[in-house]
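pasting for ref. prot 1 ->
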Amino acid sequence: SKHVIKNITWTTAKNFTVERGQQQIEELISTWDIHESWLHHSEFLEEEELKDSKRYHYRACWGLPTRRKPLPRATASVYFVIVISKFKPDTAPVEVFYRLESSRLIRRPEQCQFREKWLQDIIENKIVCAERL
């Protein structure tokens, strides 16, 4: 069965604020099919000025706390970039990209459905590495 990629309607460049960006990232995350035991917090990291665009960087940090271990042994981060083009009209929607902390692959929310397994893999790899040390 073909998965429907869930996305949200992104704000326009002229209506963008750092806070609005973070709210919209939370809105996007709420469309992801992730078990409720996963908890995350998101934060704004920095604004980057480029020749052709302004980029706003955010991070969502994920963990699987349990009653026995309220502090997870490892966390997994997803990095988001919201891009505002200096060439497009300010009525155009912002562009959004994300990547996983362990990967250089950049994904677009409208082209790729997020998978919980990606978070599990990062955390499992970190735990394996920590146990080797």
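and prot 2 ->
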Amino acid sequence: IRQWHSAVVIQAAYKGMKARQHLREKHKAAIIIQSTYRMHRQYCFYQKLQWATKIIQEKYRANKKKQKVLQHNELKETCVQASFQDMSMQKQIQEQHQAAIIIQKHCKAFKIRKHYLHLRATVVSIQRRYRKLTAGRTQAVICIQSYYRGFKVRRDIQNMHRAATLIQSFYRMHRAKV
């Protein structure tokens, strides 16, 4: 009986260890899946930004080329003195326009960055809250699972003891008859 009881205890400990190992592997797999998904999401966002940047650059270059063509056509049509005055005026306007574009670009970039940082801070805050919430729930689930498994193992052991007692009493009765 002692050997049998020892075997049951060892088997219960081994099964508990295997169950905890399996649970740890599931947690690791879930973490890998989550991090891979976040990485994929960030990569998609990066690709969209890259695509938008290329389009803006192409439009800017096309507009610049168009302005050069228009300037060239204007120079052809006017005489040297008028073209010189126009050219200096165009240069001044273009410099003012470039200055305005740079100011607008910096303002827009500042607004976008500010909005992005606000959204990022909000997302980080939500993620922290969610992780705290799920960490507590995960601990509660693990605790409940361990209590349930312990209860189940104790019940199985009791059932095995009862079966062993019945077998012993049956064996004694059988020996007494013989």
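Residues 1-146 form one domain.
DSSP finds two helices and no strands in the chain.
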